[in-house]
Amino acid sequence: MAFPSTTISGSLYGSSSESMRSMWPDIFYKSSPVRKGIQGFGTDSFHGFGNLEGSALCASPFSISCDEWRKKKDPISLTSAVLWSSSEPSFISGDKLFEFHEVSDGIINKKEYMYIETSTSRGTSGGVPVYVMLPLDSVNSNSTLNRPRAMNASMRALKAAGVEGIMVDIWWGIVEMEGPELYNWGGYREIMALAREHGLKVQAVMSFHQCGGNVGDCCWIPLPQWVRKEIDANPDLVYTDKDGRRNYEYLSLGCDTLPVLNGRTPVLAYTDFMRNFRDEFSDYLGDVIVEIQVGLGPAGELRYPAYPEMNNTWQFPGIGEFQCYDKYMLANLQACARQVGQVDWGKGGPHDAGHYKQFPYDTGFFHKDGSWNTPYGEFFLEWYSGNLLQHGERILSAAESIFRGTGAKLSGKVAGIHWHYGSSSHPAELTAGYYNTRMRDGYLPIACMFGRHGVTLNFTCFEMRDEEQCPFSARCSPEGLLRQVTLAARNANVPLAGENALMRFDEVCAADG
Fold this sequence. Notes:
Largest sheet: 8 strands, mixed, barrel
Structural class: alpha/beta
Number of helices: 13
Order of helices and strands: EHHEEEEHEHHEHEEHEHHEHHEHEH
Mean pLDDT: 80
Strand content: 5-15%
Strand order of the largest sheet: 1-5-6-7-10-11-12-13
CATH architecture: Alpha-Beta Barrel
Shape: globular
Distance between the termini: 17 Å
Helix content: 25-40%
């Protein structure tokens, strides 16, 4: 097939029944493809869902509303937790799906829930809609369609194969290349016209990041030239690590609200781009273009660029590094530290957090009894993750207002950082901005934020199995991570879509699908 990767889209649970939504814990709904035989959490691998009071100091007002929601959903105790059983789900209507153990005041209650087939988001054939991602270089740098004859033939083949539609990156670095607010949508209009001709739906990705430097990047599409000139004049516009290395994939969230782009803020530049897209493609929205995936960071994901592969800076399964050393983020950190009366906490990130390629046990911050679980560690991680939540809130709020009433739904992508998931500190998730540890759920606040704006949570690594991951010492668990994110999305009443992280054509993956 001409297109290299697939994205599976569709709600993993139903939301049409008010009575079902009011239950706690409510019924888990299936929409295939669902991998049979996934093992659940055992008590020895428990990742708590009780500590939901984590509002980022001086940064994030959002977890208050999540906390209020949690109290409403579970009036028994804020410290109650939900664990998945290790029994194998059967996925047959009426059979036991899994067990919940509610832990409250030392009392463990065993509950069983039945799998019930319900209506979900369905494709034109009645199943879960499947979208195929177009090549990243489908549109040339001059905004003309690349390989138009091959594109036409490929779309015809996709339609014949029963595919619901395509996903296409709309690159900021191509469309607004010539100058601020000078947009050229030429090649993308050709793609939309071809999709309509062949009866395919389109998921349009607002790609505000650089292409090149991430897994699967097969071409080089930098940020717009005029943006790069601003960065050259002020390198602190991009994320920076503790050694002063700059990352040019995406603008730092530290300058989100500052007029650093020819008099506009980055958030305003993203907003203007999306508004112009809406106006340009108004005749396709809701009909051909059925979804807008809003870019929120490197690779389009809501995260920090903590694991850059360019120049061999990071290698799997390294823990990555915190990206908070541009002058704007440091100024914010210093202000927050002063507010809590701990001036020394504002000098930078943890001094003992190690380097990109290290393992958690090699560091003072991330090892089992490390300083991640101290008042300082909690302060820093709340601040770091809270700023990321605020960043997502700003952009999704703008997107919601722009695309309201167009008939196109919104989605945002969260990275599937599955390595070191089995460790206590979850270091790779922490450096990426997800405050998720063995004692804290970092995905529910994200799901709540998405839910406030009616945004589908698009999650990667759906195709991965725990048993396939190596080295063993990295304690990878893509299946455990997916279960946790699924639970967070369900509890926040947010639709969950899936996207494969890597290309796979093997028989094992095909059997699972």
